[in-house]
Design the sequence.
């Protein structure tokens, strides 16, 4: 009789139990990875009211601390929840309201007033308004602005719109490209915008007649056109929005773009809020700027497309500037023959 048989059976049973335990552990891990809720339940103990109180008061132990060097933050922190509430309850709805609201206002305005036509026929005599350098800067900054606005809106709302429509794979690839474009073009936009603002500063100093321009709604209220120099009051308002809110968006974007300069989590959270609010607001106002410069006002687009404007347009929309430069008007035929704008001469207007 072989007495080792029971021991062999016991050994096999032990191996079977061990294999069963290991397989159960692997199955549990797989389930946790498939279900974020189960993963959280396995990774950390239950978070009851006492734990949340400790987190809020900073009383938690090392298990709830950030492992980064010289950090005093909790891995579960109240400031992060405050930022999330601000973003979800206020900032994201604000973006939808101002942008869609501006689109609705522009559509209604166009239906009621239509495109603003010139009161007098064109004379065929042209005045140089924008040099080639300024136009190149403008179109580069404008193109970058549109790209950043589109990618920024995708970062803010793309998950809610495109992920359900196209699935995780498409959405993940789109977001990866979106972040790459937004993060790398942002600093370039900031540099070029500052250069453009400096070049246009002299034309955008506020004057007394700007108040009258606002009082007449840019010519929509009452009869006649309000006085305006090289830049009217509406254009100056857009300039100073870019020079204030635009700079705030640029600086906050750089804080987010380069997190390796020691800024804390609270700084990053506030930079995110400032960046989003400023960008949403500027995008909404930019829609109005685009409308006025294209469909909204006859011949306005020609100024930034060719650099030249007709005398009738200049007299009607920028009469003070026109009085300063009217002796520089060139017949359209002569301009077409000589094409002086190809050499990029600077205009010599005064701001009136």
Sequence:
């Amino acid at each position: 009789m072989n007495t080792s048989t029971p021991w062999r059976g016991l050994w096999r049973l032990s191996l079977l139990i061990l294999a069963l335990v290991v397989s159960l552990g692997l199955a549990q891990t797989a389930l946790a990875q498939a279900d974020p809720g189960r993963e959280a339940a396995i990774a950390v103990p239950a978070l009851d009211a006492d734990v949340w109180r400790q987190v809020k008061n900073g009383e938690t132990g090392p298990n709830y601390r950030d492992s980064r060097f010289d950090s005093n933050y909790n891995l579960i922190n109240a400031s992060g929840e405050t930022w999330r509430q601000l973003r979800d309850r206020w900032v994201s709805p604000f973006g939808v309201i101002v942008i869609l609201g501006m689109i609705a206002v522009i559509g209604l305005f166009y239906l009621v007033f239509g495109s603003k036509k010139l009161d007098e026929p064109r004379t065929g005599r042209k005045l140089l308004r924008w040099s080639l350098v300024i136009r190149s800067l403008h179109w580069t900054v404008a193109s970058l602005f549109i790209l950043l606005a589109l990618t920024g809106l995708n970062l803010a709302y793309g998950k809610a719109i495109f992920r359900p429509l196209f699935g995780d794979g498409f959405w993940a690839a789109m977001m990866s490209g979106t972040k790459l474009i937004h993060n790398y073009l942002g600093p370039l936009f900031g540099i070029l915008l500052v250069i453009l603002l400096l070049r246009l500063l002299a034309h955008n100093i506020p004057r007394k007649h700007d108040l009258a321009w606002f009082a007449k709604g840019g010519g929509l209220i009452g009869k006649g056109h309000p006085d305006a120099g090289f830049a009217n009051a509406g254009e100056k308002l857009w300039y100073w929005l870019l020079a204030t809110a635009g700079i705030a968006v640029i600086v906050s974007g750089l804080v987010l773009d380069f997190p390796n300069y020691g800024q804390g989590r609270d700084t990053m959270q506030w930079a995110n809020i400032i960046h989003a609010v400023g960008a949403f607001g500027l995008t909404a106002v930019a829609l109005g700027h685009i409308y006025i410069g294209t469909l909204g006002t006859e011949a306005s687009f020609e100024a930034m497309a060719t650099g030249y404007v007709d005398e009738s347009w200049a007299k009607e929309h920028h009469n003070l500037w026109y009085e300063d430069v009217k002796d520089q008007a060139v017949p359209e035929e002569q301009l077409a023959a000589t094409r002086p704008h190809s050499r990029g001469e600077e205009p010599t207007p005064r701001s009136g």
Observations:
- The beta strands are 125-128, 308-310, 330-331.
- Residues 78-113 form the longest helix (36 residues).
- Residues 183 and 257 are 6 Å apart (CA to CA).
- The chain has 13 helices and three strands.
